[in-house]
Amino acid sequence: INAEYMGFFFTFDSNFTVRRKTMAFLLNGATLVRRDGSTIVDTSAALANKVLAFYFAAQWCPDCRIYTPRLKRFYELLSARSKPFEIVFVSSDSSEEEMMTGFQNHADYLALSYTNAELATSLRARYGTFPRRDVERMSPVERISGIPTLLVVDPSGEVIQREVELADPQTMVSEEDYPDISADQMLELASSWFP
Length: 195
Description:
Order of helices and strands: EEEHEEHEHEHEHHEEH
Shape: globular
Largest sheet: 7 strands, mixed
Strand content: 15-25%
Oligomer: single chain
C-alpha cells in the first residue's frame, strides 16, 4: 500500500510496517529535462549515488534572477571537481514556455518537467517551499521558505541544508549587489554533503 501524508510518501509492506520511500524512488518515473529540452528517461540512474538538491525558483522572480547565476557557478565548480552532486529545478513559473525560457540561464542540471505538476506540488508541500503568491493555494501547508531556495536532501529526502547562501552578506552594498562567495568558500560550504 502506498500513501502520501503532508508531502511525505510512505509504503506499507505485507506486515503493515511503514517504510519511508527514498527520493530516487519518488522521482522514478518523473520526467526530468535538460536546458536543451532533452528528457531523462532513467531518473534513478541519473540521480544514483549523488547528493541531491532541489532548486525552487521561477523566471518571474527578481531574487531568483540574482541567485541563479551564482548557483550556475556553484554547480559548474562542483562538476569540475567531479563531486557527485545533482540539482533538480522545481519551477514555480506560470507556463512550460516561461519555465524553459528561464531555464536557459541555468547551469546544465536537471529540471522537473512542467508536466509533473502534481509531483512539483508535493515537493513544495513536503518542504514548505513556495512563492508567497501560492500561500493560499497551498494552505494548510506551512510556508517555511520562499523562492529562490536551494534545498539539499539526503537519500531519504531529509533536509541536509536549507537555503544555501552563495553570496557574502558581510560585504553587501545593496540587495542587488551581494558579492559572490569565493570558490574556496563554495567548496567549504558543500564539503559536509559528501562522504
